TrEMBL record, chain A:
It comes from the Bacteria. InterPro entries: SoxD, SoxD_sf. This is Sarcosine oxidase subunit delta family protein. Gene3D superfamilies: Folate-binding superfamily. It comes from Fulvimarina endophytica. Pfam families: SoxD. One of its GO terms (biological process) is tetrahydrofolate metabolic process. The lineage of its organism: Bacteria, Pseudomonadati, Pseudomonadota, Alphaproteobacteria, Hyphomicrobiales. Residues 83-105 are annotated as: Disordered.
UniProtKB/TrEMBL annotation, chain B:
InterPro entries: SoxG (IPR007375), TrmE/GcvT-like (IPR027266). SUPFAM superfamilies: Folate-binding domain. This is Sarcosine oxidase subunit gamma. Coiled coil: none annotated.
């Protein structure tokens, strides 16, 4: 049984949760001024990394709250979970290559 | 026009019946049909005020996540951040009205007495039965009296909490689910408890 740590309820079975795709995607402030490409990138283009991935998860069959999780897409290990609105944590101790850092390096 | 007569029907009406070998039964079940229920959701930024109102009015603390507290003849179960399920024995429909008045301006109160069905489960094998449906550690260290959880049981969304042990010294749990899930839940419970034997106690 895979356990996920809800920031409100603690560790619970994965079957109580629902994944809502990539996290930290901000809606553009002025959608009407975007061209089709920029709007399409907001709507559809995702990073799909091999390694650490920040995702939105919902504790659907528990408290019902949404939160974010850092998950390694190779091992399916959830490194850290954190509340909505909190910044993406630095998971450099996790020993998993962070694609966000690899790209910027 | 003829006057309409409405008769209240319990959620598990006609469902609960003994299962398996009940000499003696491993699990005892009782429908908590006299429990009045209401959800309490705190207004934005008023949590500290709500906690003060709680201790003044009910003589109990606002339960933290995963906990249940008892006050003056009522109980509160935490169901999520800023949300609680309030229970009062024989509270009737007046319960949510008086609760809303007491918590006026600090929390939203909604009557749920007819929305939820609550079962009390006890007996020497109750943990073994719940372990078949709940993905939680129900051991005495991890889930003692006063602990509560919004979770699933037999794939039915439930709010589960633990009460003090009964006279026989057996653990007691109460399970609240949406009323329309009563039949599905009973299907899971009657199947899961069959090997230990299940008896039905009078509702109340």
């Amino acid at each position: 049984m895979l356990l996920l740590e809800c920031p409100y309820c603690g560790k619970r079975a994965e079957s109580e949760f629902h994944c809502g795709g990539e996290a930290h995607i901000a809606r553009p402030e002025t959608p009407a001024e975007l061209d089709d490409q920029a709007w399409a990138e907001y709507l559809y283009y995702r990073t799909n990394p091999k390694g650490l991935h920040a995702e939105r998860w919902q504790h659907r069959h528990g408290c019902g709250r949404w939160f974010n999780a850092l998950r390694d897409t190779v091992s399916d290990k959830v490194v850290e979970t954190y509340k909505m609105g909190e910044p993406r944590p630095d998971a450099s101790n996790a020993n998993i290559p962070d694609p966000a850092k690899v790209r910027s390096a | 026009m003829a006057e309409i007569q409405l008769t209240s029907v319990e959620a598990f009406d006609g469902l609960l019946k003994p299962v398996g070998d009940v000499r003696p039964a491993g699990v005892r079940v009782r429908e908590r049909s006299t429990l009045a229920l209401a959800t309490v959701m705190v207004r934005k930024g008023r949590r500290a005020d709500l906690a003060n109102r709680f201790s003044d009015a009910f003589g109990c603390a606002l339960p933290d996540a995963g906990r249940r507290t008892e006050g003056n003849d009522l109980a509160f179960v935490s169901t999520g951040p800023g949300a609680w399920l309030a229970c009062r024995e024989h509270g009737g429909y007046e319960f949510s009205e008086s609760l809303a008045e007491t918590l006026s301006g600090l929390a939203s109160v909604t009557d749920q007495s007819d929305a939820f069905a609550v079962l009390s489960l006890s007996g020497p094998r109750v943990k073994a039965v719940l372990a078949k449906g709940v993905f939680l550690d129900l051991g005495d260290a991890a889930f003692p009296e006063g602990h509560a959880a919004a979770t699933q049981c037999g794939h039915v969304g439930v709010t589960l909490w633990r009460r003090p042990a009964d006279e026989a010294g057996d653990p007691v749990y109460e399970v609240a689910m949406f009323r329309s899930y009563a039949e599905s839940f009973w299907h899971w419970l009657s199947t899961s408890a069959a090997e230990y034997g299940l008896t039905v106690e009078r509702a109340g």
